[in-house]
Amino acid sequence: MEVTRAIESLNRVFEKRADDLRKAGDADQLQQWTKACQAMRDSGNIYITWARHYARSSEPTAPSEEEDDFLNEGTVRDEPPAGP
Known about the structure:
single chain, mainly alpha, 2 helices, elongated
């Protein structure tokens, strides 16, 4: 929760800076700032999403390994092929 609040606070500070640039009429810097803010917001959201996923997976009621396989894209299983 602390990280979520920190990211939200940072986003508010970024938005305030964008408002200041908008008021100053600096279109070029505003455009660059807006792109950077969007990237930071997206990164923060990705971080929070993964943190929540890992927090849930450490709980006793976590989904089984089969249900969570799609997240283990780099894992190679040592299973024989199915069939006769």
